[in-house]
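To illustrate the input format used throughout this study, we show a single complete record. The first block contains the structure-token representation of the backbone; no residue identities are included at this stage. The design step must infer an amino acid for every position from geometry alone.
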């Protein structure tokens, strides 16, 4: 059985190694579950975030790496069981000179510029918190946003708190800080959840994937593999099937 997965450059979830091999937490999880249900050949398609949903919906590939589950996206694709729960955060200049720790704070700091990837949920979250369109700079790729932050064209980059923490580790805390947003009611179960997505109607693959995921998520092997990429009980416990 052969299958194609689309992914984007977004460590620690997925990225391309120097030799061209796709790797990352979401890639590792997909491979583990798919091998267990009999998939023998997996092909990876590097794409942009904006192309993930249209690509899988039109059948250009069989599934996408996880993205946040929203009602708007559920109208276009079918989601698997959630595989992680992660809050938002900012990547900012070292020392966080503008004290940016939430979308509301960006809105209050009227001249702050916030970088966001086109189509990601952070855009809607920022607007809902009062951030003005004029404060938001949209990018197609994460690398473009990071370059804009490092060169001073934006003051913060909005993404997942976990992803930003990994980026700050890689780039260096002498240059950048990762600032997580406060939890809602300090409840980890309230964190937004992400899942793999499939073309609507592809029930056989989705059902098989979910059956194996229900057995695997939260297992010792799952936790060990994810820890290699920085995912801990904070991201895993809220999605473990009951």
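Output of the design step:
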């Amino acid at each position: 059985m052969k299958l194609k997965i689309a992914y984007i450059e977004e460590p620690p979830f997925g990225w391309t190694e120097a030799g061209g091999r796709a790797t990352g937490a979401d890639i590792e999880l997909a491979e583990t579950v798919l091998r267990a249900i009999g998939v023998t050949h997996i092909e990876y398609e590097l794409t942009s975030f904006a192309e993930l949903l249209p690509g899988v919906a039109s059948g250009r590939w069989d599934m996408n790496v996880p993205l946040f589950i929203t009602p708007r996206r559920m109208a276009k694709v079918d989601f698997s069981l959630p595989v992680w729960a992660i809050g938002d955060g900012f990547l900012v200049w070292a020392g966080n000179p503008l004290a940016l720790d939430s979308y509301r704070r960006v809105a209050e700091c009227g001249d702050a510029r916030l970088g966001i990837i086109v189509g990601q949920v952070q855009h809607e979250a920022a607007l809902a918190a009062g951030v003005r369109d004029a404060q938001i700079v949209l990018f197609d790729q994460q690398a473009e946003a990071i370059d804009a932050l490092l060169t001073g064209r934006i003051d913060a980059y909005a993404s997942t708190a976990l992803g930003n923490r990994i980026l700050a580790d890689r780039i260096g805390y002498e240059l950048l800080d990762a600032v997580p947003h406060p939890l809602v009611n300090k409840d980890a179960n309230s964190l937004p959840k992400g899942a793999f997505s499939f073309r609507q109607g592809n029930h056989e693959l989705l059902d098989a994937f979910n059956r194996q995921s229900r057995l695997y998520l939260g297992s010792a092997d799952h936790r060990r593999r994810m820890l290699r990429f920085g995912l801990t009980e904070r991201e895993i416990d809220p999605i473990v099937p009951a």
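Structural context for interpreting the output: The two ends are 30 Å apart (CA to CA). The chain has two domains: 2-85+192-239, 88-182.
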